[in-house]
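Hi F.,

I've been meaning to write this up properly since the lab meeting, where we talked about keeping a consistent format for the predictions we share between groups. The idea is simple: the sequence comes first, exactly as it goes in, then the C-alpha cells exactly as they come out, then a line or two of notes. No screenshots and no reformatting. I'm using this chain as the first example so we have something concrete to point to.
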Amino acid sequence: MTRINLLSPRLANQIAAGEVVERPASVVKELLENSLDAGATQLDIDVEQGGVRGIKIRDNGRGIVKDDLSLALSRHATSKIITLDDLEAVATLGFRGEALASISSVSRLHLTSCAEGEPEAWRVEAEGKDMATSVRPASHPQGTTIEARDLFFNTPARRKFLRTEKTEFNHLEEVVKRLALSRYDVGFRLNHNGKQVYDLRPVQDQLHAEHRLANLLGKKFIENALTIDVEAAGLRLWGWIGLPTFSRSQADLQYFFVNGRVVRDKLVAHAVRQAYRDVLYNGRHPTFVLYLELDPGTVDVNVHPTKHEVRFRDGRLVHDFLFSRIHKVLADVRPESGMQGVAENPIQQQEPQIKDQANLGLGHPSAARDASWMSSGQNSGHTPNSYTPKDVPTTGQVTGQLSAVSKMNDFARQFEGEHINPETGEITPVVTQTPPLKSTNDSSLSVSAGTGRVREPMPSHAMTPPLGYAVAQIHGAYILSETETGMIIVDMHAAHERIVYERMKAAFYAKSVASQPLLVPINVSLSQAEADLVEDSHDVFAQFGFKIERSGPESVMVREVPIILIDGDIEGLVRDVISDLVVNGTSDLLQARANELMATMSCHGAVRANRKLTIAEMNSLLRDMEITERSGQCNHGRPTWTQLSMSDLDKLFLRGR
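Output, unedited:
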C-alpha cells in the first residue's frame, strides 16, 4: 500500500524551482524584480558563462534587516503582501515569496545586505545541498548584493537542458532589456565575462528616454516610431508604435507593459493586430513599446507561474481602448507633415530633435517626431514597388471569390469619381483642381481623357501640392512628379489601387450593409455555450448583414448573409467568428473578409501597367492620392511613392557619369 508522506523542504523547493528557475535568465528576472520592488535606482549585473557559472546582482535599495535574512530564503516568505486584499491589488513585480528559496535550492547562494538606517551589513549563505543557512557580519553599503553560483550543480538532469553560453546569455540580456524599458528612472549595468554590455543611466526626460530606446532596440526603431499618450475610462496608454513601413517578419520587437510589468497577453496582441490590420501585409508584424496604466485592482497578475500573463476584469473595455487609440494614431499620419520634415539631404538620417520634458517622469511621449515619418520611411532607399493592400491575395491565390467579385463590380464602378467623407459618410462627386504645369501659361480648362471630368487649373500663386506636378511617365508604370525640393516617383498602379480601395471601403461601411435572404437557410450545430454566445453577440453579426436565429439548444440558423460574402463558406466563417469571440471577446473576421474582397476588386480595377496616361490624367491621379491620404485612411505598409531631393539627384547624376 502506498502511503502519503510530506515532501522534504529540499525536495519541495526543487520542485518549485522547476517552475521559477528555468534557466539563468529566470534567476536574473526574479532577483532584479526584487531589487526594483526594494526601491533601487541603480542595478549592477555581472554574469559568467551566460549566467551558468555565476550571477551577481548589486542594488542600492532599502536592504534587508538581519533578523529577516534567513527568513528571506524560506518558501512563501515575502514583504510584499500580507492579506487577501493585497493580493487582489498587487502593485509590486514579485509577490509569491518563492524566488530566493527556489534559487538557493539549485545553486550556491550568497546574500549580503545593509538595511536602510542600520549601522552594519550582514551576510547569509545557503547551498542546495542541505538548505542550511548561516548569518555573519559583512561590509556593504546600503542595499543588497546577491550572488548565485554554479546553477543546477546539484541537479545535473536540469543542467543538461541548458543551451550554449551564447544562447543563455541572449535570453538573460533580453530580460535585462525588458526591465530597462519598464523603468527609465533606474540605471542598469550589465557585464558578461568581465566585458561591459550595457551602461544605462537613469533618465527623467523624453530625449534621454528615447536615447535608451535607441540603445536597446536600435536607432531605426526610434526613427520610424510614432508617439502615443492617451487617457480614457481610467486607462492610460503611452509609448511608441512603429510605422507600418517598419514592420518585421516576426514578432520580436513588441514590448507591452501593464503597470510596469512586461506581459504577453492574447487580448492585447489581438487589439494591436486589429489596429494594424489594414496597413500591413499578411505575415508582417508591427513594432511597438507600449505602457498601459490602470487601477491594480482591475487586473489579476496571479494567473501564471512566471507572471507573464494577466487577466483584466473588463477585457472588452481594454481591448476597445487599445484598438481605437492605436488605430487613430496611425490614421492621423499626414503626408504633408512628412514632406515638411524632408531635409536637404534625406538620404542622411538626422538625429531626432526632441525638447526635454523633465516633468514627464517615466516619459510621456512627445509628438515632435510625428512629422518625420515620411522622411524616414519614404527615403530609406526603397524603390517604388507595386503595392497591394494587406488583405489582397497574390496572383493564383484568389479562389472561390471571383463570383463575389463579379457581383460587386457595379458597386466598385459607382464610386469612380466620387469622394466619401470619412466622418459623415456623405458621398459627393469629385471635381479635382489640377494646377497647370510650370512650363505653360495656358489657363484654359483641362479635361482628363476618358473621364469627361472638367478640371480647373489652380492659380499660379498657389503652393506646390505635396506630390507635385506630373512631368512624365516612366516605363509605363511610374509617374515622375516635380516638387519644390526635388522629384517624386509614384507607382501609378499602387496609388490608383489604394484610391479605389479606400473609396469602396468608406462607402461600404457608410451605408447599411446589403444582405440577401438564403433560399435554404444554413443550420449550424454548436455547443450550448456557443449557441448562447451567438444570441448574446447578435449585434456583431447584424452589423455586417447576417441574420442568425436560435433554432435549438445546440444549433443556430443562418437566414441572411451580406451580398459581398454570399458565395463564401458561410458555416466555416460563422464558426471562426464564434471561436474568435470565445478567445478574445470580440471578432473582426467579418470585416477582414469583406476588406479582402474589396481589396481584390480594387486590384483588378486599378490602372494597369503600360497604359499611357496624359499629363492631365497623371495630375488627376496625384491629386486623388493626396485627397485619399488626407482623409486619414491611407497608411499602407509599403510606400506608393519615393521622394528624391536635389542632392539625391546630384548624386545619381555624378554616379551615372
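Notes:
Residues 492-510 form the longest helix (19 residues).
The two ends are 93 Å apart (CA to CA).

If this format works for you, I'll send the rest the same way.

G.
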